[in-house]
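Appendix B: a complete holo record

For completeness, this appendix reproduces one full record from the ligand-bound portion of the collection. The bound molecule is zinc ion. The inputs are the chain sequence and the ligand SMILES; the output is the full three-dimensional arrangement of the complex, encoded as structure tokens. No fields have been trimmed.
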Amino acid sequence: MGGGRWFGEKVVWPVEVGGLGIRKIRLFNQALLGKWLWRFGNEVTHLWRQVIASKYGEASGGWCTRVVRGTHGCGMWKNIRKGVESFFGHVLYAAGEGFRIRFWYDPWSSPTALKDLYPAMFAITMDKSAMISDMVDYAPNGGGRSWNLRFRRAFQDWETGIFYDFFAHISSKLPRGGDDTMIWQLNRSGVFDVRSFYFSLLAAQSVSFPWKSIWCVKVPKRVAFFLWTAARGGILTIDNLVKKDLPLVNWCCLCRCEEETVDHLLIHCKYAHTLWSEVLRLFGVQWVMPKNVVSLLSAWWNWLGSHTSNVWNMVPACLMWLIWKEHNARTFEETERLVDCVKSLLLRTLFEWSRIWGFTHCHSLFNFLNSVSLSF
Ligand SMILES: [Zn+2]
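The structure of the chain with zinc ion bound, as generated:
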């Protein structure tokens, strides 16, 4: 059997997604150290935490220490502190009194910080780095709380929609009292666990930009450029056109039942799915479709082993290119082809490209398809 496919990166994935469950020691160690970041943020009154905090100083809100500089002291905390960025990327804050949470900068009302969710509001706020507690008014005699936000100027007509949206978003999120806490977003309990952190570190490492699947695949250059643009989310699907303020109804032109995004069009659309299934059936491979184009390209590359993947590696470029051509024909020329027609075009194109690059010696499509199915 093509043993190569089981070696290399894939063995560190959990068994349920096709790996052998062997842990990467460095990442696992980082995940273990995450436990200490979690405890530092939450165990405010504990002695060990106070010792560390007085030695290195606290960063805003006291969720972590400042950056550890110099070589003095024990290297242990320095090591733990290194994992801060990936750790806090999965933390959401729950506002008690809001003394420790920055209103605009910290993610608390949603996984995205308010400054990124409402940049127009952020641009004209008076108190960019204020804590949530600074933004709350308390009615006398234990009455209710309300938001007290100050802006540098009155709103323009065109801003009122954003303004209402913003206030609708925060109106139900007034701090309720008690301690501010962290919520771990990678599991349902909201409490940090090493396992979920480890797998997120692993996923982040595996999905680096898949340049080999784009530039080392033998396909026409214009197709490689298209694939590169698609991987960067830059092809002009309707969602991207809407972002450029074009007033369009977002409706996928292939399946006509869901919104058109790059990942929908090229991977998840029913139309695309039929083509992917056909190819996987041809190669006799079981495959769970990843969420987006980048993950797909990363996982696809050399999946059958580095010596037997020549034709296989062409598939994403070829299939996505044909979908894109069909998309453009429907959008600009108002012609459309049934999926079966594109399916046979896909197989013919794979055959032609394989002949050009010398990956097959077969003279007929029929023999080529047989040779592909039989070799795995
Ligand atoms: Zn669709």
